[in-house]
Structure formats: structure tokens, C-alpha cells
Design goal:
- The protein is α/β, with parallel strands linked by helices.
- The protein has 2 domains: 139 residues, Rossmann fold, CATH 3.40.50.300; 284 residues, no CATH class.
- It is 42% helix and 17% strand.
- The protein has 20 helices and 14 strands.
- A 5-stranded parallel beta sheet has the order 2-3-4-1-5.
- Helix 20 links the parallel strand 11 and strand 12.
- Helix 9 packs across helix 17 and helix 11 packs across helix 17.
- The longest helix has 20 residues.
- It is globular.
- It starts with 5 loop residues before the first helix and ends in a 7-residue tail after the last strand.
């Protein structure tokens, strides 16, 4: 079992649940089922799994006339040796196709005899039919991602004591020993090739870095997402899901404006879903990075909604989407610079979103260029740029000057360095933000 940070989040919910069930949303194969089972095994006498996808008899439990008394009566027939009390965890798995039934669980919350966790690949919103949201009253939601870079390091055997050495350098801004820095950057590249999907990390460790075999499994995984997109396309004879999924590559990193993108507007014509990227966000493939207007960058009220960037939620999947040839070139450090910078930028996005931070950037209207990410720290907005090497960023300096930011970060493959208010950091140091 890999050490996962979300275990602490689950324990916190158990302590402070306040008569709410927990909904764990996450893309497929990020480890939701495994970690919830392990959490149940460690903290409850019984764990009862209800899975309407793989257990037909469980679908009867979720019918519209659902109520707690009838539910527990039927459940007692299916699990006659279980006592349904506070020492039993009810785990509703794979509920994405039955999300309309999730509000029925409020009667189980009111009943209060068991703790309840629900897992799904989507994060639905519900109302009581009168316009009142049920989400806040009955439900606590969290989003689970694939393993982050620090968890990847744990899986490789790096201890907290070793990682704390680098954290100390991040805090003090002292340069790292050259060998240690190059070794950590090597680990960054490994993570970018493998990603954080637990079974790919497991394969990476068991096969001693067999990237060819890992890539074959990643391709199957990507195909599964194409198949999922197909569920939302009602005119498959005219359009293929691949024709919509693959062009993501050309849209990652560059600014995308909905109103000027007829290619993806067509998706709504053949799909039951309003927009390809809305679908990909909801099923956990990508995350939206919102543009913050220059003069009011700190307020969400001034987010420019029609101008945004998209990043794949797991860097390993993005690199795999480019193909095995690009992986070979990337591994040998001979990748074209523009593409390499885009991949490094998505690595930083991977780190930020897996820390639970909102992705925001600044699209500058002047010649100074864009700020790749904006990061809130102690009430201040800190600019972040991502570069291949340690070069001067006019956008970073300009932002610091115009908005009186206390400092800004430049992440690259270089070492730690400070010049005025610009702090240069190696890519891996982003895990300490």
C-alpha cells in the first residue's frame, strides 16, 4: 500500500463529520476504492460496500421510494452477519451513473446509525425541488487526485527526513548541492513519464523503470477515457470520440477562448453534454485555469470566464498522450524547448491542483508577457512563471512592480537563486508551496 495524504483527510472527516456523509470525487483509477477500503479496515469493525455497477442486486437498494428503514431491512438480508451501528462504514462505490439517487442518502444521514462514504467520478449538485441545495446540509465533498510528486517520492523510498532537507532549503533559499539537485530533477522526469496513477507507479517500481510496458498500460487507460466520452456522443456515425479527445494536446497551455473555438463548439451539436472541456473537467481528465484580470487579480469577481487554459490532471497521462516517441526524446533530454516548457508548466499545475489550490493565471495585454500561475500566500497574490532555464522574466518583474507583490517564483531546472524579489527554484520545490 502506498502512503497517501488523503488518509488524514478521511480521518479528519470521521472525527468532525457533523452528521454528514462524505462524497469522494475523483477520476477513474486514482485510488478511491482502495483507499476507502483501507480506511474502513483500519477504523471500523465492518465495512459494507454497495456497488450498483458490479452488483445488480445493489441497484434495488437505490430505488426512488428509498427510505432508511426499508434500506436497512434489505441490507440485513444481503449482509446478515453485520450489525449496522457506528462501528460500521457504508461505502457506496461507483455512484457516477446513479448520481440522481445520491440525495436519497439524506434519510440515512438523518437515521444516523452508520457512517457513510460515497465515491463517484463526478461532483453532482442537488436540490430539494424548491431551489434549496441539499449539498451543504447533508454532504461533505472532497476531491481525490492521483499520487502527487511527494507521494511518488515516498513510493520510491524517500523518507520524510530526506524530503525535509529540501524543504529547509526552500525555506532558507540556500542553494542545493549540485548532485542532490540533479538527482531530484531526475525524479521529476521519472514522475512526468509515469504520473501518479497508483497502478502505473506500482508497475514502475516492480519492473525497475520499464517505461515501454508502462506506456502500453497508459495507452489503454487513455482509450478508456475516449470510451467514456463516447457515452455522451449521440451521433457516433458522424463524429468519433477520438476526433474530440486528441486535439486537447494542441489546446493545453495556450490561451483558449470559448467564443473563438468553433471546433469544440461543434461538440455540443453531437453530444448530450454542453462542451467538450466541461465534460473533461467533470470526469477529472483536465482542470481549468482561470484568467485573472490585471487590475483586479485578487477577486474571483474579476475572473475572465471566456479566457482560460486547461491542464491534464495527471502529468504522466499528458506525456503519454504525446506518444512513446516524445517520451524517448524527453527521457534523453533532447525535446524541443517549447514543448518541454509546456510539459514543465503542466508539472507545476499538477503539483498545485493536487495540493488543492485553485489554478489561476494572468493574461497580460501588454508586451511583458503572461504570468503562468497566481498563488495566494498569507493574503498576498504571488506570481509564478515556469521556464526551461534560469532566464529573466519581464512578466514576473513587471507583476511584482505593478502590484507590490512581496516576491515571485521562477521554477526551472536550475538551482536556488534570489535576485531582488524574484526567487528562482528547481521544479521539484513547488511541492513545498
Amino acid at each position: 500500500m502506498f502512503k497517501r495524504k488523503i488518509m488524514g483527510t478521511l480521518l479528519e472527516w470521521k472525527t468532525k463529520k457533523q452528521a454528514k456523509y462524505l462524497l469522494v470525487k475523483g477520476a477513474r483509477q486514482v485510488g478511491k476504492t482502495f483507499i476507502i477500503r483501507e480506511f474502513g479496515r483500519q477504523n471500523y469493525k465492518n465495512i459494507v460496500e454497495i456497488d450498483p455497477i458490479f452488483k445488480v442486486e445493489h441497484r434495488k437498494l437505490l430505488e426512488d421510494d428509498f427510505n432508511a428503514i426499508a434500506f436497512y431491512e434489505m441490507l440485513s438480508l444481503l449482509f446478515p452477519n453485520v450489525t449496522f451501528d457506528s462501528d460500521t462504514l457504508l461505502f457506496f462505490d461507483n455512484m457516477q451513473m446513479w448520481s440522481s439517487m445520491i440525495p436519497n442518502l439524506r434519510s440515512l444521514v438523518d437515521d444516523g446509525r452508520c457512517d457513510i462514504i460515497v465515491s463517484t467520478t463526478t461532483m453532482p449538485e442537488y436540490s430539494d425541488g424548491k431551489g434549496n441545495s441539499l449539498t451543504d446540509k447533508y454532504e461533505h465533498q472532497i476531491e481525490m487526485f492521483a499520487m502527487d510528486f511527494e507521494e511518488f517520492l515516498w513510493a520510491k523510498g524517500l523518507t520524510d527526513e530526506i524530503i525535509s532537507i529540501f524543504r529547509e532549503h526552500f525555506i532558507t533559499q540556500r542553494q542545493i548541492d549540485g548532485y542532490m539537485n540533479s538527482k531530484m530533477l531526475e525524479y521529476v522526469h521519472e514522475y512526468m513519464l509515469v504520473g501518479g496513477i497508483p497502478r502505473f507507479v506500482k508497475l514502475f517500481l516492480e519492473t525497475q523503470k520499464n517505461y515501454g510496458l508502462i506506456h502500453l498500460e497508459q495507452e489503454k487507460f487513455i482509450t478508456s477515457y475516449r470510451d467514456e466520452i463516447a457515452l455522451y456522443i449521440h451521433n457516433t456515425s458522424k463524429y468519433s470520440q477520438q476526433s474530440y479527445f486528441d486535439p486537447i494536446l494542441s489546446q493545453l497551455g495556450p490561451i483558449l477562448t470559448y467564443n473563438q473555438d468553433p471546433k469544440f463548439q461543434k461538440f455540443s451539436e453531437v453530444s448530450t453534454y454542453d462542451g467538450l472541456f466541461n465534460l473533461l473537467v467533470d470526469i477529472g481528465v483536465v482542470k481549468r485555469c482561470k484568467n485573472s484580470l490585471l487590475d483586479k487579480y485578487q477577486s474571483t469577481a474579476y475572473i475572465q470566464s471566456d479566457c482560460c487554459k486547461y491542464y491534464v490532471c495527471d502529468i504522466g497521462i499528458l506525456v503519454a498522450m504525446y506518444g512513446i516517441q516524445v517520451k524517448d526524446i524527453f527521457f534523453n533530454q533532447s525535446l524541443e524547448e517549447n514543448l518541454k516548457c509546456r510539459l514543465y508548466e503542466n508539472f507545476i499545475a499538477d503539483v498545485l491542483l493536487k495540493k488543492g489550490l485553485e489554478l489561476r493565471f494572468l493574461n497580460s495585454c501588454d508586451s511583458c508577457g503572461d504570468v503562468d500561475f497566481l498563488y495566494d500566500y498569507n493574503g498576498e497574490t504571488i506570481p509564478i512563471v515556469v521556464e526551461i532555464a534560469e532566464t529573466k522574466s519581464s512578466a514576473l518583474a513587471q507583476f511584482i512592480n505593478n502590484h507590490k507583490a512581496p516576491f515571485g517564483y521562477r521554477f526551472s531546472t536550475g538551482n536556488i537563486k534570489q535576485a531582488g524579489k524574484v526567487i528562482s527554484m528547481p521544479l521539484y520545490m513547488a511541492m513545498f508551496l
